[in-house]
Amino acid sequence: MEAGGRPVMEGHIYKLFDEELRELKAKILFEGSLVEKAVRNAIDALQNRDSDVARRVIGDDDDINRNEVEIEGFCLKLLALRQPAAKDLRFITTAIKINYDLERMADMAVNLCERVLELNMEPQLKPYIDIPQMAEIAQAMVKESLEAFVKEDVQLAWKVMNEDERVDHLTEQVFRELLTYMSEDLKTISRATRLLFISKYLERLADHAVNIAELVIFLVDGKIIRHTKYPVSSV
Predict the structure, then answer these.
(1) What is the pLDDT of residues 33-48, one digit of tens each?
(2) Predicted structure pTM score
(3) Which of 126, 138, 158, 230 is deepest in the core (most CB within 10 A)?
């Protein structure tokens, strides 16, 4: 067994495996760029009431789904053929999980756009205040979680995880406000309900960003912190 937990292999096999790992990372980053774009466009569609942009996000989801399937197949091939160990194994298993979270993020963007199309058929219920703030935080968390993966930056991963509480607080705030609208005027129920769904999609986006950040911790330190109460900050 050589340093890093890799089995003894011929030099050219090492080189090929390293190239495959770099290719896997590039695939994840490309998928991440598509998802970031989908999330950004979905939020723009909401804030600008732009149905064309919403339809574009929905239409582009097929490309993300195809990439997700391709990446999973590539990871399974590496596991079967290379039998990786130690950090190489952690990297591939982390990539599989990040790939799943990215695809789910794209689904949240699509769901958000479907609600936007429905909302655009009626007058705007109210000026959006908390929801854009949630969207801004969630979008930043998505971006920073991917950056943490690229750079293997544990501190940035902790930052992403600690931002989640702000999104949860805003979700509760939106819920209380929209509940008041619905109780005071029954005609607002359909629009308010769709906005509640949107706030939930944004909360889920943030949750998937947290999942990726936790996976970065696992990749770098080999620690599984999922389902544990982590501190407000970490050294």
Answers:
(1) 999 999 999 999 999 9
(2) 0.88
(3) 138
